[in-house]
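Something for you to look into today, if you have time. What I am after is a single protein written out in full by you. I want to see for myself how the chain folds. Could you add the entry underneath, on a fresh line?
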Amino acid sequence: MKALCKTWWIAVRPFAFPASAMSVIFGTALGVTVGGARLNVPLFLMSLAGMMLLHAGANVLNDVYDFRKGLDREVLPGSGAVVRGLVSPETALRGSIVLFAAGAALGIAIACFVGWPIAAIGVAGVAIGVLYSAAPVGLKYRGLGDLAVFLDFGILGSLGAWTVQTGRLSWIPAVWAIPLSLLVVGILHANNWRDIAGDEARHARTFASILRDRGSLIYYAILVFAPFALVLAFIIVPAAAGLGPAMPAWCLLTFAALPLAARCLARAIRRKDPRRALDFVTLDAGTAQLNLTFGALSTAGLILDALVGRAT
């Protein structure tokens, strides 16, 4: 139990909370403010806990496979429990199974209230989380890790949270979650970009290693700035073209996070000559902070729009 607690503690910090929880919080807010659902607090808390367990399980499993492949042996600020020597790979593997099982159990409990749509989303989420690292698939090592994270901890998290609250599927949470999902990918890419040399030495093919250094810089810039352009498009285009509900104008609050995105990109640009020694090493943590800020502002925009609408 002590080893499992250590595994969990390292797994959930510093990136798991903003990357996974914000998609659930955002999707829940969407379901209530746009989907017209009445907030079910117990189901929301169960959804949040389930996502955190799934993300922690995926993180720990990834620690195990990275360590076994010799990819992750140096202790860095975001290193997992195995690399830190807190638990053995075998104990961590058992811990990841427990975390996945606990998350799946919560998903089954939620499905009993909501029905098959959330069960299908949950099965897809667990499958992607396991196959991200686990042999023989290992999506991460085949250049598909970015897509897996985009779907699992972005789109599916938001869609699942919406479905939990409304009881139905919709394109709205899937599309409106794209900006947040890109930032989740940005966290992973910053990590993989830093590790290109070590990954290539062990024949691990991440998307960053495919793009190389220069391409990774361009890709990272897109990941951290495209979300702002998409929010603007989701506000303007549907209203102008009559394509369906437009994202509330209050979501322009997300632009308050633009300076943070600029600082992240500046750290990326100065990767070979950083102002502070760990600026590039901890770029994934800086991107996680951007994800958290952007997600909180997006959610605040939805809530303010609903409150103003009720007041008028």
Remarks:
- The radius of gyration is 19 Å.
- Confidence is low (pLDDT under 50) at residues 12-16.
- DSSP finds twelve helices and no strands in the chain.
- The chain has one domain: 2-311.
